[in-house]
Amino acid sequence: MKAAAKWLTASPPRLLVLGFAFIILVGSQLLRLPAASASGEPMPWLDALFTATSAVCVTGLVVVDTGTHFSLFGQIVILILIQIGGLGFMTMATLFAFVLKRRISLKERLILQEALNQSSIEGIVRLVRRVVLFALVIEAIGALLFTVRFLFDMSPGRAVFFGVFHAVSFFNNAGFDVMGDFRSLTEYVGDPLVNIVTMLLIVTGGIGFIVLSDLADFRKNRRLSLHSKVVLSMTGFLIVFGAFVILVFEFTNPNTMGPLSLGEKILSAFMQSVSPRTAGVNTLDIASLRQSTQFFIVLYMFIGASPGSTGGGIKTTTFAALLGAVRAMIRGRQDVTLFKYRLAQERVYKALTVTLLSLALVLAATMILATTEDHHFLMILFEAASAFGTVGLSMGLTLQLSVAGKIIMILMMFIGRLGPLTLGYALGPKKERVLYRHAEGKIIIG
To answer: What gap in Å lies between CA 413 and CA 432, rounded to an integer?
Structure first.
């Protein structure tokens, strides 16, 4: 027993996995309480586990409608799970330690380093303080703007709750909404305030707290780190390019953009370009999109947000490193460079490993779901990519999942939130230093 406990707590990745699993189990038990349901009936255990996993892993895939199935208590539980999952349970634990004026131990700093995807523990406590501050300030501003807008549509108390819930959900890239009837933001497709505030919340939550910290110091330092430059440039490119592609594909679709004005089409194109990068909010009916658009969204969900953020996917920096490697190979250069900086070979290997592992997971989940679920392939692939990227967009399959399908999706959301490498480090053997190198061999590539 002691040996098992020692193994479980031996490394930061394992503690991270255990911490998230514990929060999910606690959340599922709370959601099973009769008080959490609007009908007063306890929720089935698997559905509660699915919902809690989706909330903690900030995904947004649901098997019941959040706005109508859950009571106010149940919705507040989901809101708290989203906040804990988005910021990370270690960040929240550190916040309580600050309040209690308790010293942060070395082991806790190592776990925070793993949770925030940092290369060292230097300045990690300062970063945690900033993470909490940025999150609370941005969510508060978003909640205020949403509340002002929702006051035109509902009672003041309801408007305040809707404003807070959606600000927290969208900043943490969770995709949960309480609009009811699985509508998401479709009734606000042409509303500039709701769309712009939503997109800003998603982007600020998705670029990562490291970049936000860098931007906060820009006036003082007058420079950005390479990481921030890569994240901001890739984020900007993906948003604009995605909006252009979606606008072209859907411009004449009578079931989505067809009836909209030109301004509404552009606004909805940008929303659907921002949202697949792990947010899960939609103003157009996802099931009514053309297959070309749906497949394009799958690619965006796979790329995801940025490191150290509330989002999932392989991350924008991984995608940038792969593009840099392709460019270097085509130009016959040995070094992979971004913004005139050379990337270490180990970083390129890591990007390749993350991408291949993630692709293998999505394909494996798709093949299994294709066996357990009787639906067409693109719908199954879309759902698997959405779960892995912790996105939350759905073509409708999640509501019809079998028991086996729900279990597969729960595992995919969990792996997607933690990352395949973190899970691999947690479950794999301890790394050993290799004291030798093999002789060089040659194979033909391509």
So the answer is: 30
CB 372 within 8 A of CB 404: yes
**In terms of Cα–Cα distance, which of 156, 99, 103, 157 is closest to 125?**
103
**Tokens of residue 332, six digits:** 């016959």
Identify the CA nearest to 282 among candidates 185, 202, 367, 208: 185
**Rounded distance, CA 113 to CA 111, Å?**
5
Asked if 309 and 350 touch (Cβ cutoff 8 Å), the reply is no
Q: What is the CA radius of gyration of the chain?
A: 22
Q: How far is residue 20's CA from residue 114's CA, in Å, rounded to a whole number? A: 13
> H or E element: which one contains 345?
helix 345-372
Span 71-84, average pLDDT? 93
Query: Residue for token digits 């920096």?
Result: 317
Cα separation, 377 vs 408, in Å, equals 16
Say yes or no to pLDDT of 33 above 50: yes
Amino acid at site 341: Y
Exposed, middle or buried: residue 76 (CB in 10 Å: 0-12, 13-18, 19+)?
middle
Q: Measuring CA to CA, which residue among 367, 373, 322, 365 is closest to residue 343?
A: 322
Q: How many other C-beta atoms can be found within 10 angstroms of the C-beta atom of residue 442?
A: 5
Q: What pTM was estimated for this model as a whole?
A: 0.88
The token duo for 360 is: 């293998």
Q: Which of 60, 136, 145, 115 is nearest to 383 (CA)?
A: 60
Tokens of 413: 């959301």
Structure tokens at 139: 């969510």
Compute the 3-state secondary structure of the chain and give helix, strand, coil in percent, each to the nearest 5. 65, 0, 35
Task: Identify the three-state secondary structure at position 341.
Answer: strand
Vertex 200: Cα angle to 272 and 143 (nearest 5): 115
How does pLDDT run across 399-439, given as a tens digit for each residue? 899 999 999 999 999 988 877 766 655 555 555 666 777 78
Report how far Cα 90 is from the mean position of its chain's Cα atoms: 17
pLDDT at site 311: 76
Contact 359, 389 (CB under 8 A): no
Name the 3-class secondary structure at 117: coil
